[in-house]
Each structure stands twice: as C-alpha cells, then as structure tokens.
C-alpha cells in the first residue's frame, strides 16, 4: 500500500457493516506451472484482499425510556456494534457478494462483513 493511496482513501466513508477491500494481486501461474488467462482468477468463488476502510458496524436502535417524553429529548447519536475487521487485515471473502468499484484508477471491492469468511491479522489478538 502506497502512502498516497492511504491519503486519497481518507475521503471515502464506508456505510454500515461493509468493508472496502483492495484485491490481492492474482498469480498468473498455478502451482504446477500452467499459465492462467486473465479472467480465470476473477471468476473464483473465494477471493482475498486487504481491508482498506471499515464501516461503523451494525446500527442498534435507540433505547427510549417509558417515563420520559420522546419529543422532549435531544436527538441521540446512532450507536453501532463494531465490526471484527480492521484496516490492514487480509480478508478471505465470497466474490458473489462483492461489489466492484474503480476509484482513481484502482480496483476495489465493497463487501458486507457477512461475506468475509476469514481475517488474517499481523498483530496479536
């Protein structure tokens, strides 16, 4: 990941329980030495890539008390249950649920957390 790439992604806001993934560069060759055409790797059911941005999580409803009048309360901020994924994690995800976007000439995927099958994190849990 380049430093300039990180700065351009700061303008992006990911919504809800979604993550922004930059796909890992695909290998052109199989373990046995066969060369793959460009479209073969993209059609795989399971892909991997690095998480670049993470949404706030799953929204939870506001807890209104029965003894207080709802119109007299100030507007509450929305609360969220945070996601397991963090920026920099390597994610293994289902391709069918991913939405491909191009941002400043780079290819990214927006994936719901439910489509992420596994995370690989370099730091200790």
TrEMBL record:
Transmembrane segments: none
Keywords: Chaperone
Keyword check for Chaperone: yes
InterPro entries per the UniProt record, alphabetical: Chaperonin_GroES, Chaperonin_GroES_sf, GroES-like_sf
Domain of life: Bacteria
Keyword Chaperone (UniProt): yes
CDD domains attached to this UniProt entry: cpn10
Homology family: Belongs to the GroES chaperonin family.
Protein name: Co-chaperone GroES
